[in-house]
Amino acid sequence: MLRMSTLFVRTLREDPADAEVASHKLLVRGSYIRRVAPGIYTWLPLGLKVLSKLETIVREEMDAMGAQEVLFPGLLPREPYEATNRWTEYGPTVFKLKDRKEADYLLAPTHEEMFTLLVKDLYSSYKDLPVVLYQIQTKYRDEARPRAGVIRGREFVMKDAYSFNIDDDGLDATYFTMRESYQKIFQRLGLPIAICRAMSGAMGGSRSEEFLFPCEIGEDTFVRSPGGYTANTEAVTTPPLPELDYAGVPAPEPVDTPDATTIETLVAVANDLRPRVDRAWEAADTLKNVVVTLTHPAGERELLIIGLPGERDVDMKRVEASLAPAEVEMATPEDLKAFPELVPGYIGPEVIGPQSARRSEDEPMALRYLIDPHVARGSAWITGANEPNKHVFNLVYGRDFEADGTIEAAEVVAGDEAPDGSGPLEIARGIELGHIFELGRKYSEALDLKVLDQNGKSQIVTMGSYGLGVTRTLAALAEFNHDEAGLVWPEEIAPATVQILVTGKGDELFEKADALAREFEAEGIEVLVDDRKKVSAGVKFKDFELLGVPYGVVVGRGLADGTVELRSRRTGERVEVPVGEAVAKFAEFKA
Amino acid sequence: MLRMSTLFVRTLREDPADAEVASHKLLVRGSYIRRVAPGIYTWLPLGLKVLSKLETIVREEMDAMGAQEVLFPGLLPREPYEATNRWTEYGPTVFKLKDRKEADYLLAPTHEEMFTLLVKDLYSSYKDLPVVLYQIQTKYRDEARPRAGVIRGREFVMKDAYSFNIDDDGLDATYFTMRESYQKIFQRLGLPIAICRAMSGAMGGSRSEEFLFPCEIGEDTFVRSPGGYTANTEAVTTPPLPELDYAGVPAPEPVDTPDATTIETLVAVANDLRPRVDRAWEAADTLKNVVVTLTHPAGERELLIIGLPGERDVDMKRVEASLAPAEVEMATPEDLKAFPELVPGYIGPEVIGPQSARRSEDEPMALRYLIDPHVARGSAWITGANEPNKHVFNLVYGRDFEADGTIEAAEVVAGDEAPDGSGPLEIARGIELGHIFELGRKYSEALDLKVLDQNGKSQIVTMGSYGLGVTRTLAALAEFNHDEAGLVWPEEIAPATVQILVTGKGDELFEKADALAREFEAEGIEVLVDDRKKVSAGVKFKDFELLGVPYGVVVGRGLADGTVELRSRRTGERVEVPVGEAVAKFAEFKA
């Protein structure tokens, strides 16, 4: 039994200054969490109770599917990460340090290497497989922009599981069993989830899905089609466009276009100086060339130019997903200084990519040029002429210029066709709570995890990777289960099921509240008693609403007539019941 | 139900090469733990089960005494540790790192600052107190010599609790309540414990006790007297000696003592050249001056000389405890080079301490000299004359030389008198599992944790600190509960209570074992079934003995006659029981 009179909690009426999203505000105001440093939080008693219950649900479902729990260290030596090249690849997101003997260590952002090595240590035969191991463990990632409380933290709790199979069919089977376990977890939590096709990103691998909680404040954008296609926008592929016949397209023509440094002004100038007869020029007729800076894992930087139709924006997350593990940023004027041929606002293909005068043995990569698939081969464009106040018309891709390759860079917009032909896409936002994917043999090859097969032949094991952000899921639950007044926890993870509020002064009220609490607890129902003596009923109701215990029992004026009030935080419903029947009536009230 | 056929475990018949103590060997051989780096371990499924049960017992006793659980981050910012000066004081034992913005962080070796700041954040009145908070959390310490598996690790699990009281009486009361909780924890674990007076060391504070598990392989030495005095040797104080009358002692006399660089040779030479009439010279007549190097937290080094009777060795742990937070090492010949007046083997008081020619305004600390309390004021000594092959006789402490102070430096030996007069001390070794102490106001003052008292006056809160090494306690349990063949877990923390061994080939044996397992589990008894098909009975028995599940049920040849065998791993007892009564008979068998 928890008692408000001694519970380590102090509710706040004001939102914390650094909080922007509801879950963050309410978890701080309800004393569930406290910030220690950017993206690093302490769990207070109420928060830890919710977190533990959430972990228990995850653990139960993992155990139920036959996964076995282990616990790896958070502090790991450099060597295994060297073998897989990730010591370098991880870049600035990994916290690195040295011990007193100057040996290199890292704070594990993920544990692929450790799981692989552990299975290699113990197992040696196909008869040992399949095996699925998991842990619920603290992870560290030095995020550039920690945000929204525990939604994107730098120290956070994750469940990560890995499966080990002798062959791809086995991996598929384990993948789908794990997928069902994830569905069960989110069903138990009552959290709606969109399962999206995803890129496996820096991890390598093939089959890959994200479990997104659809939500306005989410950082991930995903799409869905009427025909059931669901994907993270990073994973959406553009259906290939047919090559166009450019036989009738005149030769490229440079045109003075003063002050046309934006697509909008360029279209206006084009319609003014070179009007079309069939229709007006549109943004879709212009080819925009966007310069980005890549920072490769080892630290070297590269300028890269991306060409896409002027009516589309670049989606940096799609670009990043395509270019991982490099980090990508928009190039700054400073970045451009070393390349005087790049005239801001007037960049065109004629000086970049395969056309670049800088291409040499020494600098084969200089000004790499990638084209978004919305640019069809054979299509003609208005684009920069690489001189101030000048554009070129009728520049044909495949005739007048080439690129170094294609890249999914343009933002996906509502109405785009799903790549599987299942209809126009709708765009939504969400928070990524889980990610499952077939990792394949990347780590088992790098770390030489082999077992003997049925024929006594040595075989590389194939792996699956299954992550679930535990602290982030807690935040998503808070996000999904709140109203203006505060949190409204689902019963399975609430810090208590019933909050008994004493709203009056007589000792008999407090005694009755205690007796009731014991009755509830005898039925296995967890109780938080608000037994504070000098706190008004108004404050107690406000705290009840803020803390989010799903049901309330008010022991107050009605007690003189032998009644208490049951309240549902979720529905707002209230009923007076005889105090002697409170526990029995509560079962009906809930139902 | 656990099944050996799928359990992630592979027992080893050979001891691991790097293991010296039984618990380390057996935990590795039984696949409870695996080493990842020095002092850093992974917990495998069986190990994690035992660890979780141990954590549950600790949690239950903490909750029972009213402590509230929280969870602090492992990665902490520098600032709070600056305020208490511990960023520097901790020295090389703390892992430090920088984030991507070059901000300083540390991996928490302990969380005093965080607990203090959290209470300061939430509480403001004496009415809020007392409060006791605790966490069960991963700690990081860059030990110079990690050893013995998880006994001294660099990443380990600790329960740390802090109490906050308005006054000293309250702190005393909380201290004793916590002391009882610790006693209950170790009683539940069946682990014998010596509660020893201790130094609070680098932590500051006053009342301080360690919970030691007495054990030969322990790193801590403690003493006990027939009258019940128990103390860590670091905390043993030497009863003060009365001052001697040196009126009859002749003036100091330098004597040539060729090759007398050890106490043994010096005593022989003295008896040879200057025999006493009343008795022979003994080591106890010589004053040994030992040079140590102090490394202060900020990094500066200092030579310090300790004087003690020649028949006693220096106990570096006692010296370290006295000089904390400085680190102490024996000085090397290299260290002595800057001080030509220190002639190795012939160092005497006449050139050190207050007698040092180096004492000046600029260098007041040079060659500080501290005297062990076994050297009485007024006593006469044979000691070094600061020239090669020369000692001085009749050098009287307080007449011919002074020291800068006293230090408890000499080793405590069996037969020494207890400081409280409770008789001669016996020496024993142990592993420190817990440490409770009254921290007082060190942290609350440094971090300004004040509350308003009954009179509206601001008061500094007083704190208690209560640590318990969870992973180390697990190792102690393994150390205490093993025999030649393997581990023998106590039921409360065993990975399972009953191991069912199928020793035969018929399908009916495996089916019966499964049915029996379900019967046991229906009674709430946890079962590990050894259902491996191509494994011999001999291997199964060996694994049963190694893994340490306390009871076995053998389903084998007897089944034809309707019986199974119950075995106790602890007593070796075996009984045949009818298979239909196995569960009922098991209750009797255990009792």
Q: What this model shows, in words?
A:
Chains A, B: Pfam families: HGTP_anticodon, tRNA-synt_2b, tRNA_edit. Chains A, B: Homodimer. The structure is a homodimer of 591-residue chains. Chain A folds into three domains: 2-236 and 427-479, Bira Bifunctional Protein, Domain 2 (BirA Bifunctional Protein, domain 2, 2-Layer Sandwich); 253-406, YbaK protein (Alpha-Beta Complex), CATH 3.90.960; 496-590, Anticodon-binding domain (Rossmann fold, 3-Layer(aba) Sandwich). Helices cover 25% and strands 28% of the residues of chain A. Chain A contains 14 helices and 32 strands. In chain A, the strands form eight sheets. In chain A, strands 4, 8, 9, 10, 11, 12, 13, 22 and 25 form a nine-stranded mixed β-sheet that branches. The model of chain A has no long low-confidence stretch (mean pLDDT 93). Chains A and B meet through β2, β3, α2, β4 and β5 of A and β2, β3, α2, β4 and β5 of B.
Features:
alpha+beta; 14 helices; 3 domains; YbaK protein; 591 residues; 9-stranded mixed sheet; 28% strand; 6-stranded mixed sheet; globular; 25% helix; homodimer; BirA Bifunctional Protein, domain 2; Rossmann fold
